[in-house]
Amino acid sequence: MQKIRNIAIIAHVDHGKTTLVDKILHYTKLFRENEQTGDLILDNNDLERERGITIVSKNVSVRYQDVKINIIDTPGHADFGGEVERVLKMADGVILLVDAFEGPMPQTRFVTQKALALGLKPIVVVNKVDKENCRPEEVYEQVFELFFNLDATEEQLDFPVLYGSSKMGWMSKDWKQPTEDFTDLLDAILEHIPSAPFYEGTLQMQITSLDYSSFVGRIAVGRVARGTIKENQPVSLVKRDGKIMKSRVKELYTFEGLGKVRVQEVPSGDICAVVGIEGFEIGDTIADFENPEQLEVIHIDEPTMNMLFTINNSPFFGKEGKYVTSRHLYDRLQKEMEKNLALKVVPTDSADAFLVYGRGILHLSVLIETMRREGYELQVGQPQVILKEIDGVKCEPIETLVVDVPAEVSGKVIELVTQRKGELLIMETKGDMQHLEFEIPSRGIIGLRNNVLTATAGEAVMAHRMKDYQPWKGTIPGRLAGVLVSMEKGQTTAYSIDKLQDRGHFFVDPGVDIYEGQIVGEHTRDNDLVVNIVKGKQLTNMRASGSDDNVRIAPAIKFSLEEAMEYIQADEYIEVTPQNIRLRKIYLTENERKVNAKKFQ
Length: 601
Hints:
seven-stranded mixed beta sheet; 15 helices; 35 strands; alpha+beta
């Protein structure tokens, strides 16, 4: 028997996966007592730290009682479901983490379904039992019900459950009796998760994720399914379409702690990183040189949304970014597709524009934000959902939407969702919150979050996940207000913004460079209005007391990238540069807009 356990940690966003991994790393004495590591050790890229979410799955390993435990931290957002699906292939068991107050959420259901379908053995951890209002027993019942509804086997339904608080650093079999440390959890892993089996035979290993090093290039990461992989061994690379390429393993690494250790050979059951294989993609199989046999190709859910990516052609192009041409944009998108499986890039009629397909707004916005930080300038259009024809009927993606709100504002939320063709399915009370579940077209979710947060003073907790395709639900009202569009290029002045404040809310401050056709604010009515906010005050040499009123300007509204993506309409673009996010009309002059107005109706 090999002393290896491969385990993935799955949960809804913000239920404490990465914190749990941190505490296990500390408990197994991976760091010196006085070493400063900070929190959320695994969320190591800037975007993950800022947003407090995991985007890319990571591998670490710890040793406990002479057993090596490979831990895979997975993202919780359904938008990164492509990451979760392929990483679960490396595990023999999963730790399902559930918040003791919120219980199983839509994302919990999504990842649990994937794990149970692969036949993985679950351990349930009810986390955050130190929070007030928590309901550990009820949550345990809900998890059992969820497993039952997802057709779990009898063996999977007989899951061990632990209660605790990752933050406080303890896990126990009884939530009323806190322990001092994580012994109970690690013992449960050794007891209930099957050890990685060793299969005799010729080599088979599926590449499930990739790493990159500036010294050796792309590194293939995966679990050896059969046989043993050795350094310097000649191998065959079986592509997804069945083509075979000959290659050689140059270096082999296994995961130890947070880093990698170079080894001579890796037996089946362990997770390793392979250096030296050229031209591989995720899902390919590394197989025996002489008798290559392919493993089943990973199937990833299809994208549900697309956006137009195009080069920046505004009057300010090239001022802030390093990479501005269509070749730069195309190369970068191709590079992203190698590791981001749920992404698809399709060329359009124009050489400067590409349609990028993804799993949701967050999935696409993380890509845009990453490119922006790398020095790219680009423009993106309004997100569009992908329609399908099923049995001759036009169908669209439908999502399950869950909203938890204070009871007194639940009426507003129901009204907002039903306006967008949502149907209320479940309404129940959870503590002092109201728990609402809807079915809503994916189109209806675009732009909904801002409205719900405004209506509930920021107290709503929203989560949604793709359910299936259903017949088209009809038109959904778009943005209700029109926009204020600049008619001049120049620098904004406080004087003119002040004079136009009764016409709407502005998105720009005084003293900012703008151009003709840029969207500078939201109109109070439903039509677009062209305004001049670069005009200064006419100065005369006569002064009378009281003729100079003090300028009082409301602060400008600043959009985050996701908010901007949800805000724009079909005839608008977001201009994204390393320093600014600007909204603009596709056609900058008023005459062009009138000529092309019919295109967007």
